[in-house]
Prior knowledge:
heterodimer; A: alpha+beta; 2 domains; 15 strands; globular; disordered C terminus; B: alpha+beta; 2 helices
Amino acid sequence: MSGRKPVFEWTMEPGTGKALEVRRGQILRIEQVLGAQCVDFNCFNLHDYKEFMHCGRTRTVHGFNPGKGTFLWSAPPRERAMMYIAEDTYGRNDVLFPRCSAYLYESAYGFHTHTNCHDIQSEAQREYGLTPDDVHDSFNMFMCTEVTLEGSATITRQQSRSGDYIELIALMDVLAVPNVCGADVMRTSNFGLKPIKLQIFDATDEEMAAVPETPTLRSQRTPKDFVNSKIKATRELVQDAAYVPKFANLPLDETTVEVSLDANEAAKFEALARRTIYGADDASALRDIVFSWWENRYLNSASGAPRISSLEP
Amino acid sequence: MTGKTLKLWLNHQQRALLDRAVADGAAPSIEALIKRAIAESQPVSAGQSEVK
Lengths: 313, 52
């Protein structure tokens, strides 16, 4: 939106990152200065650092390339939408690759010390008392990746330009930590390191109203719901002698449903039964048919559930 | 082909999901729901992705 005034501005120089408090209802804009620079990103609930953006959850809901109109989700059991991608002018991001690390540059390139996203992120968020173990997999902005049909993932060069930007609306108070990806010897940022501009704006009522609603569910648990909500203060793991398992929904009682099929129905069942998987096991083949039908009819990816490719409109 | 009788074993979570579909009007009974699932499903065609 033109004409709005940033409440904060910062330029991240190559090799650096910045921890930023972004309050609910504010927008973090991350902008290319020269272009072709990957930005690694994660965020924490500002009031509980144990809740953080989870690439796996985000990837499951939105795929490998989350962009405009998608959310950054926190890890289970919180599973809340932390930020909303309101704008993404380049349109290529990644939640498949992990952050690059010192190990990578030593093992593959022979550097004992080299700029890398893990250590940059760690140093940036140290300003808020976090440790290197508190760095999590990153939302890789402006990073182009591909997955082959054989299942391997590759990084490709990118074509973001000066002025390309991503805008994230905070849906809770967060500590946002972007960093300039340290990969100057690979194609992630076209073999270079460039600065990145950061700005924070107050979102307008219209911008907040444009954020799609996400459901609030009982299963989105917070520490008040945990059997053990204390953050462990020691490194050694010691068995709790008083531990009694409390797994949910046990015992898993079974019931049997009998269904009689006429000749036509039996023939259709036979055509549907996945014999290569279930063999002569009619019961398992039938259960697959019934629940596959249910998925196609009822599963709603908008709820945050995994998208099913065969989902009917 | 002649008709046949099939058994569907369901744990209580699976049963609850199907019972809810029945309650929502998808079929008058769970037996009818199973028949509907069979009737409305399409066989996997050659070349369609399947778990291996």
